[in-house]
Amino acid sequence: MTGNMTGDTSRNCDTPNHSSIQTLCIKLCTVSLSICLMGCAPVSSDTAKNPTAPEIPATSPPQTIAPQAKPKPVSELAQYLPITAIATISGREIQLEVASTFNEQEKGLMFRPPLADDHGMLFVFTPERPVAFWMKNTPSPLDIIFLLDGEVKAIARNATTCKSDPCPVYPVGGVVADNVIEVRAGLTQEIGLKEGDRISVKFLLPKNQ
Question: Model confidence at 70, in pLDDT bands (50, 70, 90)?
């Protein structure tokens, strides 16, 4: 039998009446306090009539469920940064959006349509550090160029999109870089860019603006 203890149990045991249940309780109280606590626990009227009847919890008030917000269109999830730098790669000028803050770099080119041939994104890391990139939610394949002091240290060619974890990282194991440039896939091969080449980056505005 289960039930919640209510009131002063010892007082219930010490006050006799003509009820057979409480008479039994008084007898049990003289044997053991623990037996008294069990015997004096009040039960519901339904359980008293049918000891095997399950307890029915109180009905909780109805819960108001707020409607779920509709997911944003892909076009609203993408970020577009101003062109604030130009890279000269094998004699070709590439206009660059500059991602310099953590939030800008985290979003990168996610959800963006394919880049134009003369367009890219520059990631600035000050000071230089080991970096590796992934392509999560980036629908268009990219070439990723890793630079240190203007020298090409690694190129991840035709890095493809990844929609779920775990995503591959480029380059495997990472590389120390202070600038990383993303351009459309295939461009670095078309212009013959290779490791050891140099790329100049001209900022149209100071880096801290």
Answer: low
